[in-house]
Design a protein that fits this description.
It is a single chain. This protein is an alpha/beta fold. The protein has one domain: NAD(P)-binding Rossmann-like Domain (Rossmann fold, 3-Layer(aba) Sandwich). Strands 3-2-1-4-5-6-7 form a seven-stranded parallel β-sheet, sandwiched between helices. Strand 4, helix 5 and strand 5 form a beta-alpha-beta unit. Helix 2 packs across helix 8, helix 4 packs parallel to helix 5 and helix 5 runs parallel beside helix 6. Belongs to the short-chain dehydrogenases/reductases (SDR) family. Keywords: Oxidoreductase. GO terms for molecular function: oxidoreductase activity.
Length: 266
């Protein structure tokens, strides 16, 4: 067991539930934690067949894993998911709230149901998953770690995504609030968030847009899902970190697009 895990969980073989982990970034996070020795609860809603296949692949790698299906916008299903994961593994040490939905919301086309859909999937589901998982973590001497996946654009919003960005922006406030509320119940429960930059561009994106995304960073490269996964593990295994919202965006949220030359401006 790594020193980071030992500092956080002692001799426990920790269990990580990663929502939305059948594919994309969530899957990378789950695989990264599996490689680090965590037992993995793979979650999916519509992609449950892929979740089951992924869990079987993890088992082949020698990782204790299982797939669980739930609609996270339905609170009763969230509670059942947490109860089932806890029953199956005997504990829950880590919750990574990775599941989300994403689509443009131009103001001129915005519908009430779009806003409701985004907040239900991206905000309320995170609150419900966190509070039910925390109810189990409170019972554990080693507490637990919750990591929410927000978005870099909550710091620098982009055009035509106001409702989506608002649903993700709420997670930064929720992260800090949960960190306070849950620490009162058990000081060993910590809540943090990762704010990823662009780590998965659409496969049909133009070369021009791809280069623009690269140019908008300080490190002059696109991010990768593994960059997010590394940050998640860091926040999970750092026992003195809580209430932190960590950008993982290559410097995009602080870069104006041009470098300031002080010598020119005196």
């Amino acid at each position: 067991m790594s020193r980071g895990k030992q500092r956080t969980f002692g001799d426990v073989n920790p269990v990580a539930l990663v929502t939305g982990s059948a594919k994309r970034v969530g899957r990378t996070i789950a695989q990264h934690l599996a490689d680090a020795g965590y037992r993995i609860a793979v979650h999916a809603h519509h992609s449950f067949d892929e979740a089951k296949q992924f869990a079987e692949q993890l088992k082949v790698q020698g990782i204790e894993a299982s797939a669980f299906q739930a609609d996270l916008t339905v609170e009763s299903q969230v509670k059942e998911l947490i109860d089932y994961v806890h029953w199956y593994f005997g504990r829950i040490d880590v919750l990574v709230n990775s599941a989300s939905i994403f689509f443009p919301t131009p103001l001129g086309e915005l519908k009430t149901e779009d806003v409701q859909s985004l907040f239900s999937a991206n905000t309320f589901s995170v609150l419900n998953c966190s509070r039910w998982a925390a109810a189990r973590m409170v019972e554990q001497e080693t507490g637990g770690a919750i990591v929410n996946i927000a978005d870099w654009s909550v710091v620098r919003p982009v055009k035509d995504y106001s409702a989506y960005i608002a649903s993700k922006g709420a997670l930064t406030t929720l992260t800090r609030s949960l960190a306070i509320d849950l620490a009162v119940q058990n000081p060993a429960i910590r809540v943090n968030a990762v704010l990823p930059g662009q780590v998965l561009l659409p496969p049909d994106v133009s070369d021009t847009k791809r280069q623009a995304a690269i140019d908008a960073t300080l490190v002059k490269r696109l991010g990768e899902p593994e960059d997010v996964a590394q940050a998640v593990q860091f926040l999970i295994e750092s026992p003195f970190m809580t209430g932190v919202c960590l950008p993982v965006d290559g410097g995009r949220t602080i870069f104006s697009g041009q470098f300031f030359d002080a010598s020119v401006h005196g």
